[in-house]
Specification:
Elements: E1 5-8, H1 14-17, H2 29-44, H3 48-71, E2 75-81, E3 85-87, E4 91-100, E5 106-113, E6 119-121, E7 128-135, E8 140-149, E9 153-165, E10 172-186, E11 214-224, H4 236-242, E12 246-252, E13 257-262, H5 277-307, E14 311-316, E15 318-320, E16 329-332, H6 335-344, E17 345-349, H7 353-363, E18 370-373, H8 379-388, E19 395-399, H9 404-408, E20 413-415
Parallel strand pairs: 3-10, 13-14, 13-18, 18-19, 19-20
Antiparallel strand pairs: 1-7, 2-4, 4-8, 5-7, 5-9, 6-8, 9-10, 11-12, 14-16, 15-17
C-alpha cells in the first residue's frame, strides 16, 4: 500500500448519480472572458481594489481550468480479479493499482466501479467508491477490493471511472478508463443426489443398448446386485462368501458421456401477464427465482457427474444475456465450458419448441445418454420421444411441474426437486 491516504465513501444515491458536480460556474472557460472584461474596466477606471480582485480571480480561473484539463491525463489504472469464475454467493477480491505517470500531483482522486445487481462491494454496496488524498508525481498506489457474487450472470467490468480536480473542488472532472475484466458467476450449487445410470447400459453403443462399453477382463471392483444387472456380471464366489448377490464392476474402455438438454420455454416472462404493476412485478420475480433454482439444480447434477468422471455436453433453446443463441457443446472433460453457458443463459428464446426438438434430433450424439430438463413435459416432448426412442441410448426427463405427459412417461420422467437433499435440521 502506498503513502496516499485512502478513504472509502458512501456510494451516491440514484438522484445524485445523475447530477455529478463537475466545476463551478466561476471557473468555466466562458467565465474567464467575464473576468477579463472586469479587469479591463477596473484598469480603465483605475480602481485598484477591483484590479487586485479580478486579477486574482482570473489567475485562479486559469489555474483551475488548466488543472482540470491535466488532472486525469497520464493515469494508469489496473484491475486484476482473483478469479475469473465463481459460484453465486461466493466471495472474491480485486487487486487494484493506479499509477500517476506525470509530474503534476493530485490533491484528491476518486475511483468508482459502477453498480451491478450481480455483485456487491464491501458492506453489501452496489457501487464501489474509494478516495485517495495526495497522489504524488509518478506515484503508484495499490489496494484490494473485496467483492461478493450475489447472483448468476456475467459481470463485465469494462471501465473504471476516475474523478479528480483542485483541492477546493471548485473544478473537477471524471473520465472512464478501460480495464476489460469479465467475471462469470455460476449458479449456486445445491446438495443433490442425481439418479444412477442403468447398470446394463453400455456406453459407446448405439440404440437402446447404448451407453457404457466395458472390458470383461478388467474388474474394477465388486458391489451389491442391482435390478437389471446381467448374469455375466455376477461374482459367484463373492456372493457365496457374503451371502448376498454380488456383481462385478468392469473397467470402462469407452469414455462415459452425458448430454444435458435445457428447455427454458416454461420460464419465459409474459410482459403483460397482469394489469396491476405490483402483481406483474411479483410474477416476474417468481419466474426469475424459479429459473435460478432450475439452473442451480442442473449445475449441481453436472458437478456430481463430473466428479464421477462423466463428460458433460450441452444443448438448449435459450439465448444469452446479449440476445444471441447459445452454442451447443459436445461432451468434454472441462465442466467450465458447460458452466460458462449457464452463466450466460437468459430465459429468452428465438426458436419454437418444434424447432428445438428438431435440433436435438440432428445434434444429439446417438450413443450418448440424454437428460432433458424442462418446466413441464409437454405433448411435443412426448411425441418427440415416441419417434426417437429406438434411436437413442437412454433418455430421462426432469421437470418442475407435473403434466399428463409426464405421467405417461412415469418411468422416465421425474420432478428434479426429488433429487435435492434438504439440509438436516438441528435437533433440540
Amino acid at each position: 500500500m502506498s503513502q496516499a491516504e485512502r478513504t472509502e465513501t458512501t456510494p451516491p444515491t440514484e438522484e445524485e448519480e445523475f447530477s455529478v458536480k463537475e466545476t463551478s460556474v466561476l471557473f468555466e472557460a466562458k467565465a474567464s472572458w467575464v473576468l477579463l472584461a472586469l479587469l479591463a474596466l477596473a484598469i480603465w477606471f483605475r480602481f485598484l481594489p477591483l484590479i487586485a480582485v479580478s486579477t486574482f480571480l482570473l489567475l485562479l480561473s486559469f489555474c483551475m481550468i488548466w488543472w482540470k484539463k491535466k488532472a486525469l491525463t497520464g493515469l494508469e489504472p489496473q484491475l486484476t480479479f482473483s478469479t475469473s469464475r465463481v459460484f453465486a454467493e461466493e466471495e472474491f477480491h480485486i487487486d487494484a493499482s493506479l499509477t500517476n505517470n506525470k509530474w503534476l500531483p493530485l490533491v484528491w482522486l476518486e475511483c468508482e466501479l459502477a453498480g451491478s445487481r450481480l455483485v456487491s462491494w464491501g458492506k453489501q454496496q452496489r457501487t464501489y467508491v474509494v478516495r485517495f488524498l495526495w497522489l504524488l508525481w509518478y506515484q503508484r498506489i495499490e489496494w484490494t477490493i473485496e467483492g461478493k457474487a450475489q447472483r448468476r450472470g456475467v459481470y463485465e467490468c469494462q471501465d473504471v471511472t476516475l474523478r479528480s480536480g483542485d483541492g477546493f473542488r471548485f473544478s473537477e472532472q471524471e473520465k472512464p478508463f478501460p480495464v476489460g475484466q469479465v467475471l462469470f458467476i455460476y449458479p449456486a450449487l445445491r446438495s443433490v443426489r442425481p439418479p444412477a445410470f442403468r447398470p446394463s447400459l453400455q456406453w459407446g453403443m448405439n440404440g437402446k443398448q447404448g451407453g457404457f462399453l466395458e472390458d470383461p477382463l478388467l474388474i474394477a471392483g465388486i458391489r451389491d446386485y442391482e435390478p437389471g444387472d446381467e448374469w455375466r456380471k455376477f461374482n459367484w464366489k463373492a456372493s457365496a462368501r457374503t451371502g448376498k448377490l454380488q456383481s462385478n464392476i468392469y473397467q470402462p474402455v469407452v469414455t462415459e458421456q452425458l448430454m444435458i438438454a435445457i428447455d427454458v420455454q416454461a420460464f419465459l416472462v409474459q410482459p403483460e401477464a397482469y394489469e396491476d404493476p405490483s402483481e406483474q412485478k411479483k410474477y416476474e420475480l417468481q419466474k426469475q427465482e424459479a429459473f435460478e433454482n432450475y439452473l442451480s439444480i442442473i449445475a449441481s447434477f453436472a458437478a456430481v457427474y463430473e466428479k464421477q468422471g462423466i463428460m458433460i455436453g450441452f444443448i438448449t433453446n435459450a439465448l444469452d444475456y446479449k440476445g444471441q443463441p447459445l452454442a451447443s457443446l459436445q461432451p468434454n472433460a472441462q465442466l467450465t465450458s458447460f458452466l460458462d453457458q449457464l452463466a450466460k443463459m437468459e430465459a429468452r428464446i428465438q426458436m419454437r419448441k418444434k424447432d428445438f426438438l428438431q435440433k436435438l434430433r440432428y445434434e444429439l450424439p446417438r450413443s450418448v445418454p440424454l437428460f432433458l430438463f424442462c418446466g413441464t413435459v409437454t405433448k411435443e416432448h412426448y411425441q418427440w420421444y415416441e419417434q426417437e426412442k429406438n434411436r437413442l441410448a437412454d433418455v430421462q426427463f426432469f421437470y418442475s411441474k407435473e403434466s399428463e405427459y409426464s405421467q405417461r412417461l412415469t418411468r422416465l420422467a421425474k420432478p428434479f426437486d426429488e433429487y435435492v437433499q434438504q439440509p438436516a435440521r438441528k435437533g433440540g
